[in-house]
Specification:
With 111 residues, the protein is mainly alpha-helical. The chain is flat and about 50 Å long. The relative contact order is 0.12.
Length: 111
């Protein structure tokens, strides 16, 4: 299917929803895919945090967001850490769903 005209917003959303239904983002494979896609987002946010920190210390040139909430390096650093924690927890949740995956901590029932 070749298209010369760009997709409209509704066509793009329907494509994303169709992909989510076909890949089964609620399945273990979908969780792994989502975790893998979140890691580059965290790296990009970390790079933006480093750039903004460099601007504050005078090491780099101007940051592309001059003012506002997103113009602080702490916001980008917090976003990078939280996204990477989400990616890690998704991959850890995938390991818990696999029957043969080793567990770090084994719990026994109390009774």
């Amino acid at each position: 299917m070749t298209r010369s005209d760009p997709m409209t917003r509704s066509e793009m959303m329907s494509s994303i929803l169709r992909f989510a239904q076909l890949s089964g983002l609620h399945s273990p494979d979908g969780l792994t895919l989502l975790g893998l896609l979140l890691t580059p987002v965290a790296v990009a946010a970390g790079a933006l945090a480093a750039w903004r920190f460099g601007v504050d210390t005078g090491w780099t040139s101007a940051f592309f967001i001059a003012g506002g909430f997103l113009s602080h390096w702490q916001v980008w650093c917090g976003f990078a850490v939280s996204v990477e924690v989400c990616a890690w927890s998704l991959s850890r949740g995938r390991a818990k769903l696999q029957p043969g995956a080793p567990a770090l901590v084994r719990t026994e029932p109390l009774s």
